[in-house]
């Protein structure tokens, strides 16, 4: 009997343009959200996802056929895609939304990604989705799980190590859990969300940055995908946390206890 042909992997990596992690966050004057007129960059957990996709291709050699990145955001989000392309991705998809539009909620993002994956089925298909476990702006940490649920795929969240066996069409993932880690084996297709310990993303070299300018970016709209990004949640007001009050010194334990009682604290 002739051995069956090995299925080449097509990897999809969703990335998000977010306020840079080094920026000090401030509430905007309207108190409707944070001030977005600051430096933006790729969400750090998504950088880890792109890096892991590239490392998988380096480890598996010819078994990885393509790495495609996708983002949902305003026109400026194309810069984030170019960064991912410079890191080693092959092509990109940009679901463009107006500059003034609110950021899509996790369910809307998951629905858009499902629509993209269903479109990809008409061609080579998607075997593995690698994405950050959360975005540092809303910290929702929900999109990967929602996407796996919508697709009916397996999921391996908070991954700190990923190994893929293309011949068996499985992935072995080490997950971060409370108090330690656990190893699970999943069948492909699969959604993996990345944790900080998975890898350290590379810096894009100048030659790769120049090459990235020639790599294709395909554009879509929400209407093209049949997705509605209308928010389901309403933000009433955003305020900064109260300023911390300085502490004081006491001379003895008795004085400390007296001050605690004055503040309304009682012994249990």
Write a structural description.
The chain has 268 residues and is of the alpha/beta class. The chain has a single domain, classed as 3-Layer(aba) Sandwich (Rossmann fold), CATH 3.40.50. The chain contains 7 helices and 11 strands. A 9-stranded mixed beta sheet has the order 9-8-7-10-6-1-4-5-11, sandwiched between helices. Strands 2-3 form a two-stranded antiparallel ribbon. Helix 2 crosses helix 5 and helix 3 packs across helix 4. The longest helix is centred in the N-terminal third of the chain and has 17 residues. It is globular, with a radius of gyration of 23 Å.
Sum up the overall morphology in one term. Answer: globular
**Fourth-level CATH superfamily:** HUPs
Based on helices, strands and strand pairing, what is the structural class? alpha/beta
CATH topology: Rossmann fold
How large, in whole angstroms, is the Cα Rg?
Answer: 23 Å
Number of DSSP-assigned strands: 11
Q: Give me the strand/helix succession.
A: EEEHEHEHEHEEEEHEHH
Family: Belongs to the ETF beta-subunit/FixA family.
Subcellular location: Mitochondrion matrix
Organism: Mycena venus
Cofactor: FAD; AMP
Primary descriptors:
268 residues, alpha/beta, 7 helices, 27% helix, 26% strand, disordered N terminus
In short:
The chain has a single domain, classed as HUPs (Rossmann fold, 3-Layer(aba) Sandwich), CATH 3.40.50.620.
Task: Furnish the topology, listing elements before pairings.
Blueprint: E1 9-14, E2 17-19, E3 40-42, H1 44-60, E4 64-73, H2 78-87, E5 91-96, H3 106-120, E6 128-132, H4 143-151, E7 154-165, E8 170-177, E9 180-187, E10 190-194, H5 206-212, E11 217-220, H6 222-225, H7 253-262
Parallel strand pairs: 1-4, 1-6, 4-5, 5-11, 6-10, 7-10
Antiparallel strand pairs: 2-3, 7-8, 8-9
Helix pairs in contact: 2-5, 3-4
